[in-house]
TrEMBL record:
Pfam families: AAA_lid_14, HTH_50, Sigma54_activat. It comes from the Bacteria. Keywords: Aromatic hydrocarbons catabolism, ATP-binding, Nucleotide-binding. Residues 143-372 form the Sigma-54 factor interaction domain. Residues 11-59 form the PAS domain. GO terms for molecular function: ATP binding; DNA binding. The lineage of its organism: Bacteria, Bacillati, Bacillota, Tissierellia, Dethiosulfatibacter. Gene3D superfamilies: 1.10.8.60, Homeodomain-like, P-loop containing nucleotide triphosphate hydrolases, PAS domain. GO terms for biological process: regulation of DNA-templated transcription. This is HTH-type transcriptional regulatory protein TyrR.
Length: 453
């Protein structure tokens, strides 16, 4: 097609460029499953370039588990449009709609697919195709991962979510225990009922039982005259997450044990038991077994809850998840703040080296800060927080990988660290110059480079 050909007012190169830069992925195959075209959205979905994908077949991608489930074969057989929710290798859930294009003999000549992420509750053409790897369809419970460890955990979590067995989710603060519990709820037969997360550590000790189980009117001084429905009752029919369950006092643990075993409880100030149908998921960042040995956690409750234990490893133990999380958070906050931010390869390398003691929660906050404070589309080394360049621990931890950075990059990063730290403390170029023993002209130049750029 010549470049002077017009398509609804666009010349062909312009029209093609528009399709190439759509947010939704456009994916076109021939009648032999061969990929003829995919737009630039493939980088977000698969971490691969167009050149790396075009020419391969959809069967190749399915065998390599780039996504699942695959429905091209039945679509070719049925000769009709198909749609399904699929889960990509990085854990992202997408909605894929495939439309067959027929030749003059009514045979499929091409298939064009639209692949959309961040899907909400969208009706599908054929909702009988489901994915056992689904991890939820809303922004609030989306969990992004690529590591084998997390795939294994989510596969097991999805499997046990189909039954009402109690379980304990363990892992450091910020790894996503609540997200996993929410995923289990949404994958369970209880998904249309409430999911009630309770942070046990945040409940005042004197009010724990009344908050959990409710109370009768006038049960104690200051109680509501109409009484109060407890969190357990609010979760009736659904799922109750007891996060940081290790913080519950032994008296409350006894009542929890009774409620789990007998499916009933007695509100504060009442004498009649209340029946309840609720699934219990516990979560903790401590070793409950050690607390049992110390006498701080009931042994019978521990064994009653610990039918299945799901351990989420810290982010520093599964660094292959970090690039996908960074990409996801950049997209999330770019949309939220109506901007567009990407990250340089060198800056990403620094994020990969960071220990992330706060895990995914810490990474999410760092990315939000970078999106808000960066004045350039591409976030570089010089814009990373000072904490990313902490000398204590970081240098020793990553000495072996120092060859990944050139001498100039190392010195520039450290120079930026010194300037930003001094400017945060002294606020003026004159005082920064005095502190670092520089000329004010040079200090001003470096502040423009590392702070105000």
């Amino acid at each position: 097609m010549g470049e002077d050909k017009k398509i609804y007012g666009f010349d062909f190169p312009t029209f093609f460029n528009l399709i190439d830069n759509m947010y939704d992925e456009i994916y076109i195959t021939d009648n032999n499953y061969k990929l003829l075209y995919v737009n630039k959205a493939c980088a977000r979905h698969y971490g691969a370039t167009q050149d790396e994908m075009i020419g391969k077949t959809s069967l190749d991608f399915s065998r390599e588990e780039w996504w699942g489930p695959s429905f091209l074969t039945p679509m070719y057989e049925d000769k009709k449009a198909y749609g399904a929710r699929q889960t990509l290798a990085n854990g992202m859930e997408v909605l894929t709609i495939a439309i067959p294009i027929f030749d003059k003999d009514n045979n499929i000549e091409y298939v064009i697919m639209n692949v959309r992420d961040d899907v909400k509750e969208i009706d599908l053409y054929n909702d009988q195709i489901d994915s056992e790897f689904s991890i939820g369809s809303t922004q609030s419970n989306k969990y992004i991962f690529k590591s084998k460890a997390m795939k294994k955990i989510y596969s097991l979590a999805t499997k046990i979510s189909k039954v009402d067995a109690t379980c304990i989710i363990t892992g450091e603060t910020g790894v996503g225990k609540t997200h996993l519990a929410n995923h289990m709820h949404l994958s369970s037969p209880r998904k249309d009922k409430p999911f009630i997360p309770v942070n046990c550590a945040s409940l005042p000790s004197e009010l724990i039982e009344s908050e959990l189980f409710g109370y009768a009117k006038g049960a104690f001084t200051g109680a509501s005259h109409s009484g109060k429905k407890g969190l357990v009752s609010m979760a009736d029919g659904g799922t109750l997450l007891l996060d940081e369950i290790s913080e519950l006092p032994l008296s409350a643990q006894a009542k929890i044990l009774h409620m789990v075993q007998e499916k009933e409880f007695i509100p504060v100030g009442e004498t009649t038991p209340v029946k309840v149908d609720v699934r219990i998921i516990a979560a903790t960042n401590k070793s409950l077994k050690s607390l049992v040995e110390l006498g701080h956690f009931r042994e019978d409750l521990y064994y009653r809850l610990n039918v299945v234990e799901l351990y989420i490893p810290p982010l520093r133990k599964r660094t292959e998840d970090i690039p996908h999380l960074v990409s996801h958070f950049l997209s999330e906050f770019s949309d939220k703040y109506n901007t567009n931010r990407q990250i340089s390869d060198r800056a990403l390398e620094v994020l990969l080296r960071h220990e992330w003691r706060g895990n995914i929660r810490e990474l999410r906050h760092v990315i939000e800060r970078l999106v808000l404070t960066s004045d350039t589309v591409v976030i570089g080394l010089n814009q990373l927080p000072i904490s990313m360049f902490s000398i204590e621990g970081q240098a020793e931890q990553h000495d072996e990988d120092d060859e990944d950075f050139s001498f100039d990059e190392k010195t520039s990063a450290y120079e930026g660290y010194l300037i930003r730290k001094a400017y945060e403390k002294y606020k003026t170029s004159r005082k920064v110059a005095e502190h670092l023993q520089l000329s004010q002209t040079r200090a001003s130049k470096l502040i423009r480079k590392y702070v105000k750029n």
